[in-house]
Each structure stands twice: as structure tokens, then as C-alpha cells.
Design goal:
The chain has a 6-stranded mixed beta sheet, with helices on both faces. The chain is globular, with a radius of gyration of 19 Å. It contains 10 helices and 10 strands. By secondary structure, the protein is an alpha/beta fold. The chain has 2 domains: 143 residues, P-loop containing nucleotide triphosphate hydrolases (Rossmann fold, 3-Layer(aba) Sandwich), CATH 3.40.50.300; 84 residues, no CATH class. Bound molecules: adenosine-5'-triphosphate and magnesium ion. The site of magnesium ion (MG) has 2 residues, from α1. One of its GO terms (cellular component) is plasma membrane. It comes from Rhodobacter maris. One of its GO terms (molecular function) is ATP binding.
Amino acid sequence: MSPILQIRHVTKRFDGLVANNDISFEVGEREILSVIGPNGAGKSTLFKMISSFLRTTSGEVLFRGARISNLSPHAVARKGVVRTFQETTIFRSMTVRENVIVAHHLRARASLAGFFFGSSAARADEAAFAASADEIIGFLGLGAIADELASNLPQGHLRALGMAIGLATNPTVLLLDEPFAGMNHDETMRMVALVRRLRDERGITVLLVEHDMPAVMKISDRIVVLNFGEKIAEGTPAEIQANERVIEAYLGSEDAAIGM
Ligand SMILES: Nc1ncnc2c1ncn2[C@@H]1O[C@H](COP(=O)(O)OP(=O)(O)OP(=O)(O)O)[C@@H](O)[C@H]1O
Ligand SMILES: [Mg+2]
């Protein structure tokens, strides 16, 4: 099967620091692939280049054979490669439902300005977006808080809202940077199940960065390991847990041991 994403010889330098050095790997359609590695290994930097939030110093990222690196985040999101939005892009004075509706406009015919100023094209989209927003809210189990103001939400619900906003753009590939961070075991297991359903029921390809090793081992089809900006391993969870270089990289790091 041809890959949906190809990361080809991607390098990122910040002045003297090489955050990613000649990283190459491929992601298959409907795969759940995790990128792991100790703090500062270059995981988030890699995700930012895949989503064009950062330019590559060299190398390129292809989505279905076409280059998506060094465009703009907006252009890449429109193609269907979406990084989950941080809290800051949530409109805190709007309700959960309004936030999800607004997020639909990223892919809309009508502009965001049209939404705010009430053009007729925007009104036509509006009904479809509202229906889709309710479907996403239902899918994520947020029905009970749909009319809550975002500013009133606890952290866990904000995370779920960020996910809803990402889904509203109808992604083909979803990039999740530490989706389980700060969650307790039960919350993490619920989120693991949800990410699986994104793939199983919606056919979304998922890339995730995570430090929660039990969750990573449970959820991933394959894992790519970065260390000091280098790719040091790639394989199935079982292969990664048995990999000498990976075990070495994690020894003496602050992260939890890789084996479990
Ligand atoms: N905008 C930037 N300017 C300069 N250096 C940066 C920038 N962004 C990241 N770095 C550096 O690049 C390296 C990789 O950072 P990155 O955030 O990608 O690591 P990470 O693997 O995501 O780490 P963590 O697990 O702690 O989130 C680090 O040394 C970091 O300090
Ligand atoms: Mg990071």
C-alpha cells in the first residue's frame, strides 16, 4: 500500500542546534504511528514541519505524493493534514458548539468574515456546519457541555474541545502532540479508545507524540524513536521495546523506562 505521508531527509537547524537531522520514514493510510523520544529529542519540531508551522532547513514532507512542507499551516490543513489546536485557538467567549461550528469554516466555501457578517453563502453553510458540529460533539461525548462557554471548561474538556475543533476540519491525517499529557489513567484509556475510533470509524490516519509509554504501546501500529534529533529506531511496539538503542536512549533520561 502506498504511504499517505512521506518524511524525506528532513532536517531542522535552529542556529547551531540541529533539532532534526535527516529524518526519513513513511506513514501508511489509516495507520496509528507514534513518535517517541526523550525531552528535547525533536518530536514537536518534526510535527511542526509536517504541518508547515515551521519550515524545514532541508528535506521535504509529501502527502499523497505532493509536497506539503514549507507551505502554510492553513494550506496544509485544507489538504487534510491537521495538527490539534492548542487551547489558545479556542474562542473562550463562545460555547463548545459555537467553537466547533466556527472551526468548520476552515474548509468552507464561505469565508470566516462571511460567517461573522452573515453573507448568504455563509448562511447556507451554517446549517450543514451546525449538523456536523453536533455529530462531532456527540462522537466525542461532549453533548452535555455543548452550550457551556469555553472559558468555564476544565482542562480535560478543553482538550476534548481541541480535538473537536481538529475534527471539524475533516482531517485525513491528524497530528496529536501529547494528547494524554496531564491525564489520569482512566482519562488516558478513554482518549486511547477515542483515537482508535477515529481510525476505525472515520478512517483517519493518526500521528502522535507521547511520553505515556503504556498508552503508546497499546495504541500504536508502529513507533518511530528520536534521540537528540536523530531517528534511532522504527518498528512495532514489540520491536521497539526490545531495541537496544532505544533502551539505551531512555536509560538516564527523565522519561519512564520504555519496557513494560
Ligand atoms: N523555535 C525554536 N528555537 C530554537 N530552538 C528550538 C525551537 N524549538 C525547539 N527548539 C529546540 O529544539 C530541540 C527539540 O525541541 P522539541 O520541542 O522538538 O523537542 P521534543 O522532543 O518535542 O521535547 P518534549 O518531549 O520536551 O516536548 C530542543 O533542544 C529545543 O530547545
Ligand atoms: Mg514536544
